[in-house]
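Fold this complex.
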Amino acid sequence: MTKEELVLLHKTMLQIRHFEHEVAKAFLAGRIPGFLHSSVGQEAVAVGVCSALREDDYVVSTHRGHGHVLAKGADLKAMMAEIYGKVTGCCKGKGGSMHIADFDRGIVGANGIVGGGIPIANGVALAAKKRKNGQVVACFFGDGASNQGTFHEALNLASIWDLPVVFVAENNMYGMGTSQRRHQKVENIADRAAAYKIPGAVVDGNDVLAVREATLAACDRARRGEGPTLLECKTYRHYGHFVGDPGLYREPGELEAWMERDPLILFRRYLEKQGVPAAALDELEAQVIEEVREAVDFAHRSDEPAEETALEDVYAPTEAGRRAIW
Amino acid sequence: MMREITCREAVREALREELQRDEDVFLIGEDIGFYGGTNKVTEGLWQEFGPERIMDTPISEAAIIGAALGAAAVGMRPVAEIMFVDFIGVCMDQIANQAAKLRYMTGGKVTLPLTIRTPGGAGRSAAAQHSQSLEAWLIHTPGLLVVMPSTPYDTKGLLKAAIREDNPVVFIENKMLYNTKGPVPEGEYVIPLGKADIKREGRDVTVVATSRMVYFALEAAAQLAAEGIECEIVDPRTLVPLDKEAILESVAKTGRLVVVHEAPERGGFGAEVAAIVVNEAFDYLDAPIQRVCSKNTPMPFSPRLERFITPQVEDIIAAVRTVMG
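Structure:
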């Protein structure tokens, strides 16, 4: 990778970090309705995976999906406005934080149901396989989702049909408030790949380059028609399950230890070692902060959707679809 | 004389024609290919179209619906089969939380041309997990279209419309009707979703009946005609969208309504029809509306108990007599 490309990875991680911080601030100030699952701490997974994808590849995301969606190229302003529930949002204020999608950028959608997206990723991949266009689907899910039945059904189907999916198990050590050692006996979710006779790999999810390398290898395999890979990225969520979660389930010192392994700190250190001046990185961060502030401002100033729009988009506007609303 | 074919053949013809017509159409389900389908509905299609278009899956209903809906989201036109409607219990998240809502949640960014075919209904002593009529679960979920045909003619024309539809459609066949014959023309035709069909005209009582109950209602009407009571049998054919106009028009003529369905009465489609008629045609009603439905129990195994639980011709006759006063 060139230095510019490396800096771009850092920039995207910064975007996610500051986006999430601003969203959390607005949420705690009561400006954002609903609830919020922050991906702060997991930026390297989102950016490492998405940087390995082609523009026409797809991602299937989760309830903790802001990072995935930003890394795949979603517009900051449209996303922020969506989280604010505004008409200018990418889903016109009907999806919100948990259902952000942007089909034009290959973002099939975040999902409010843990494990709900995994079978859908297969379908997108099946279409790619039928059309022989070399597209790959990156399917994100958490350690919690790896205990859902859909995980088993979908990985089994993807393996027998050699579907071009990279199953990205984003292991942040907790399924909501239940730690991984209390919710599954295996230490590595990737070990479950053996059950489907597909490759499984464990990577440091806080090392953006390691995630990227592993994803590239999985994508190559998928594009060669050899089928899916189960890629486990070990990481940690700084905010807990939702913004406002007191995190009483954490071990003493656990958060602090992970904060020292903050993916942004690690990668900044790496970039500086590669000769990127600290001042340039500071300037980059200031730029990102400004961009995110503009997005907040845009969202804040945008209008709420008109009430009657709630009745739109339930069905595609076919004759039957129009008549199905009564 | 028009040829007669069975509902099974009607489904197969519709599938074959749409597979030929559109390369994006493919079938996905359990044992629908090499085996030919548990009800032999898809027999021969695997040989004709090959395993890439008639896709046998493991027994994984959530994976089936997920794969179909994911493919539909990027422009394919899949037809998924769920072997018995009862099995939607294991993939209801994919149907109700994903397929039904994806368009809405994305503000209309995605179109889902997805058809889910599945047989329902009692009559074979298949007991509590293979005999249900679950349309109420589905019509209660905004985002889905729900079709429930009775005749071979309707089955073929409506299934073709469902496959061409740009919205998720659940197409509920009736396992007891697969061998039922009826006239179906040779040439191609499509029946638009959302149009009821008057299966028998009559001036005295409107009987709204779905799926296999259409035949029971026709039998009841034949018997009642001998006593001079003329029933008008309205078959909605699709429950969402519902042809309210056809029902209201019939009630305006007869002033009396009986709703018949095989699903349990409580919270069922009949309650919806009754509410619509009460709200929109109250002044036309000469008698309280009667519902003829299954009792509110799981489906028993014993043939005797199954018959007792489900609506019979004599129950429809009794209900018609009640509304006639």
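DSSP finds twelve helices and eight strands in chain A.
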